[in-house]
Amino acid sequence: MHAASIPVIEFRDVSYNVAGTQVLSGFNLQVQSGETLVLLGRSGSGKTTSLKLVNRLLSPTSGEICVKGVSNGQGDVIRLRRSIGYVIQDVGLFPHFTVARNIGLVPKIEGWSADRVRARTEELLQTVGLSAEIASRYPHQLSGGQRQRVGVARALAANPEILLMDEPFGALDPLTRDELQREFLLLQQRLHKTVVFVTHDLREAVRLGSRIALMEAGRLVTVLAPKEFLRSADPLASAYVRAFGEGLESAANRGTA
Amino acid sequence: MNVFRFIWHNHVQVLELTLEHLRLVGLSTLLAMVIGIPLGIVIAHRPRFNKPVLASANIIQTIPSLALFGFLLPVPWLGERSDRLAILALTLYALLPIIRNTYTGIRGVDPAVVEAGRGMGLTESQLLFQVELPLAVSVILSGVRVAIVISVGLATIAAAIGAGGLGEFIFRGLAMVDDRVILAGAIPAAILALVADFGVGWLERRLQPR
User: 3-class DSSP state for residue A210?
Assistant: First the structure.
């Protein structure tokens, strides 16, 4: 890790309370340029909250989040959000817009010319492995996998440096999920975005992450590279490894019996 | 038939009263939209105001129309001209379906879509005009449709305070105990309601998001 470079995203002693409940407390984390940091944890551990603090969909109760060295509470929140790609599990494509308009929306409101928006849309459809003829379709005419690809393309549209992904492949069938995970890795090799990726699936975390941040009850337990994670003596980390390992084994046993 | 012969003989007056009727309904619906749609948007975004606003509109709805006309009669500027008064009363009645449907339509937009939009960096007004309103438009229009149909019926009562409209025939017919005269008001009113219902319904389907 380059100790001298400024982290792209930095949580500084962040807490977040809602209605008297502490969702996040004493949270410190740095995300380096070009890495895929996976936030791993069970439901309610504060993963999604952490993600929404980055693009300021939520504001911290205390502490601050710095994006490229600047506290994200200062300055224009709209600018901040347009410089960060955001992909969620439910995708949230605009149902009344065609695929092309969905992808081109941010570039368009950023004042790009129509030609440039069209060229960018075509390029992105290719990037996420969709054919160009899909551009004129509406979201309800797409499969779940296609929809999520469009979601990724839309997040990449204005060429953001940072990508926030909240269980983007969680609602997909296993085969499609596997395909999209593989393509994500290929994409990341080319684009080198700084990615924060939320999941509760250890297998996905190990496969996609350059580092895994394990969360539990609003706290950061540990941050480890995938290989370290699998050998970790940390009780929670090893519980995760056991849960996924045993799950795999018993499933395989049932198959051969 | 007698009724149609009567209408034919008096077609100038039928037409005149129909136009008056249309004016009452049109102006009041327009006013109710100008007030009701923004109000519906506000309460959809600020749930705190939702109960008081919907409750007020509900209470207005429960006031018998003849009584409301009567209450408003002594109000200075309004009482001077009975058509002003009728338009205001009809506007008040049209508010509830329009506010309620705007509220329901906006609240019905998939939260994931709104969250994605906000996360992408749409401003609140871009979110409203490009996402929420287009997705809610058919629900809002169905509220307008209900408001118009109610108004066409209610506006016949406006004749009781001298505001004109097709109610004139109805009240006159009642006084003369003559069915033909009553129907000369009631039939065009029913046709107006049906045409408006069909027309706005068509618009509603055309603007329906996919």
Answer: coil
